[in-house]
Design brief:
The structure holds 2 protein chains of 2 kinds. Chain A is of the alpha+beta class. Helices cover 55% and strands 16% of the residues of chain A. Chain A has 3 domains: 2-78, no CATH class; 150-228, Helix Hairpins, CATH 1.10.287; 236-365, 2-Layer Sandwich (Heat Shock Protein 90), CATH 3.30.565.10. Chain B has helices at 20-32, 43-53, 69-77, 94-101, 114-129, 173-183, 192-198, 208-222, and strands at 12-16, 36-40, 57-61, 84-88, 106-109, 148-150, 153-156, 161-164, 167-168, 190-191, 227-230, 234-237. In chain B, a hairpin with a 2-residue loop joins strand 6 and strand 7 (153-156). The chains are: A alpha+beta, B alpha/beta. The A-B interface holds A 173, 176-178, 180-181, 184-193, 195-196, 214, 225, 234, 236, 238, 242-243, 246-247, 269-270, 273, 372 and B 19, 21-22, 25-26, 28-29, 32, 63, 89-93, 95, 109-114, 191-193, 203-209, 232-233.
């Protein structure tokens, strides 16, 4: 606009000089062409004046008027070209900015995405380790310490942790297996030797103690395995009525079994077998008959009619080598600990309570399975 | 107290065990059940003994001096399909998997009652008795049954012969029984529990790793693509 005004001023000075020297006005505008606003303005100011004519937006003009010796000279400058070049400039600025953004934004995003992705991998690895996959590593093989930044440091730390954890679990596992071997080998000799003994009262006493020693060793090994966290459930959809019936039958304890419907649980039948056997034997040993086993849905309830579970067990859960109360008789307190451990491994929930009319109640809730 | 293998010769069993008390007492206990026992204290002696006498069943401890039970099992399986029962004191560890991979038919965990051991041995010998080579197949049915064909696999259920692309396949007793269980149910998925019951005579307390590892061994012999794994259910034989 200012550019247009100064252009008009220069042109006007030329025209004035021409007019003054020749006496001929160089402009040839008809009065119709002159905008009335401009005439008004020049009348009012009495000197050089300009008016920006944008009556037609696509081709604007800059008008100038100056009174010289009793007449008024007019100059008209085309502003369209200037405007168009300005518009072009604007457009170019916009296009250039867009181009720069188009290049810079993805680059920036990419630059941020790489560390983010690496961090996410570290987080994923940590989660997998927590879920028990000790082979998970944050650093892929060969990509060690690429630039020694903080993320690399975190990854190295997570990997070191997983490695240490794995090493410890493995040595725990080896130790458990070695202990098992060292204990079971002489025990096997003892078991088969006593089987060869001639029948008699003394033999029966020895056999009874061998049985007690054997079950204690097996229980301890089982607890060690569960505590080491190396136990893995072998899950399948199994018909609960059959498994429970077989488990109860094998304990050789007189128990009343009630099953409603044909429930199917998604469970590990060998561990379920152990849980039920331990609960039934516990009820038989520490409670009073009748021992009742009820299966409804995927919940298994074992109850007796004895003095009930001791308060400490209801509060703290089963503790090894603690039967809690003298009236519950002898025992190692391992059976219920093992039952709870196996219940955890198979994703079930084992709760203990007492019936209002007396008697201990153990409830095992199992995940439901598919009927096939 | 006889083994029930007919009337003639008693079943011969080779026990390879390094613990002297176990070796003596198990041998004595099994003799009471009517088995004719041979014993060896290490793997190499055991291997030589089996080469000479060709016992009907091998009872192997896993941890043995010189050549361990797994190595011994692998060596025997190179040329013999004798029934093999492993005894492991570690049980829960890798011993079981390694033993079954090496070709053992089943395993027991020490300490084991003689009655349980005998039950496992009987089940194993029943599987082996299917084989005409070991004497009398239960149902000879000459020419009655026609060959079953699964791809390039041909099973003669009468003669109990298995051929792959015309070549005879040597299958251990359990592998053969497993294959026959599949062949009797073509295209039907058999779950691990069913197989444990039908092939191994286990109840609900059977270890399903036994099935998985035997299927693995069978696949190596008859072609991996022949037995399809149905995730979460079991296996089926493909036509």
């Amino acid at each position: 606009m200012n550019q247009g005004r100064s252009q008009a001023y220069v042109a006007m000075q030329e025209d004035v000089a021409t007019y003054l020297s020749t006496g001929v006005a160089p402009d040839s505008y008809t009065p119709q062409q002159i905008p009335p606003v401009l005439i008004e303005q020049v009348d009012r100011s009495g000197g050089f004046t300009t008016w920006y004519d944008d009556r037609r937006p696509d081709s604007p003009w800059m008008w100038a008027a100056q009174p010289v010796d009793g007449r008024v000279l007019f100059v008209q400058i085309d502003m369209g070209t200037a405007m168009r070049s300005l518009q072009a400039l604007d457009r170019h600025v916009v296009e250039a900015s867009l181009a720069v953004l188009a290049v810079v934004v993805p680059l920036a995003a990419l630059a941020a995405e790489l560390p983010n992705r690496r961090l996410r991998r570290v987080a994923r690895t940590a989660r997998r380790i927590a879920d028990g996959d000790l082979d998970a590593r944050a650093m892929r093989g060969g990509r060690r310490g690429r630039d020694g930044d903080e993320i690399t440091e975190i990854s190295v730390a997570v990997d070191a942790m997983a490695g240490a954890l794995q090493e410890r679990l493995l040595s725990e596992q080896r130790f458990t297996a070695d202990v098992a071997h060292e204990l079971r080998t002489p025990l096997m000799g003892l078991v088969t030797s006593t089987e060869l003994l001639p029948a008699g009262e003394a033999t029966e006493l020895v056999r009874d103690r061998v049985r007690a020693l054997r079950s204690l060793v097996e229980d301890l090994l089982e607890i060690t395995r569960i505590d080491a966290g190396v136990e893995q459930a072998d899950l399948a959809s199994v018909p609960l009525d059959q498994v429970v019936e077989e488990s109860v039958h094998r304990t050789e304890v007189r128990a009343r079994l009630t099953v409603t419907g044909a429930p199917v649980a998604y469970t590990d039948p060998r561990r379920l077998n152990r849980i039920i056997a331990n609960l039934v034997i516990n009820a038989h040993r520490h409670g009073r008959p009748p021992v009742e086993v009820t299966v409804s849905g995927t919940t298994i309830v074992v109850r007796d009619h004895g003095p009930g579970f001791p308060e400490a067990l209801l509060v703290d859960g089963p503790q090894r080598f603690r039967t809690g109360a003298a009236e519950r008789g002898r025992g190692h307190g391992l059976g219920l600990t093992i039952a709870s451990g196996h219940a955890r491994v198979i994703g079930g929930r084992l709760t203990f309570g007492n019936a209002p009319d007396g008697g201990a109640i153990a409830r095992l809730h199992l995940p439901a399975g598919d009927r096939t | 107290m006889d083994v029930g293998s007919g009337s003639s010769a008693p079943v011969t069993v080779l026990l390879v065990e390094d613990d002297e008390v176990i070796r003596k007492t198990v041998a004595m206990a099994l003799e009471r059940y009517g088995y004719r026992m041979s014993v060896a204290g290490d793997g190499l002696t055991g291997l030589e003994s089996y080469r000479e006498q060709r016992h009907d069943l091998l009872l192997l401890d896993v941890m043995l001096p010189v050549l361990d039970g797994i190595g011994l099992c692998r060596k025997v399986r190179e040329w013999s399909q004798v029934p093999i029962l492993m005894m492991s004191a570690r049980g829960d560890g890798l011993d079981v998997v390694a033993g079954l991979e090496a070709g053992a038919d089943d395993y027991v965990v020490k300490p084991v009652d003689t009655s349980v051991l005998v039950a496992r041995m009987r089940s194993l010998l029943r599987r082996a008795a299917f084989r005409p080579a070991s004497g009398n197949p239960p149902e000879p049915a000459p020419g009655a049954a026609s060959d079953l064909v699964f791809g390039d696999l041909t099973i003669d259920p009468g003669g109990l012969e298995v051929r792959r692309a015309g070549e005879p396949v040597a299958l251990a007793p359990t592998e053969l029984r497993l294959l026959l269980a599949f062949a009797a149910n073509p295209g039907i998925v058999l779950d691990r529990r069913t197989l444990l019951r039908d092939v191994w005579d286990y109840g609900w307390d059977g270890d399903s790793r036994v099935v998985d590892l035997c299927v693995q061994r069978l696949r190596k012999k008859i072609g991996a693509e022949r037995i399809e794994t149905v995730r979460g259910f079991g296996y089926k034989l493909r036509r």
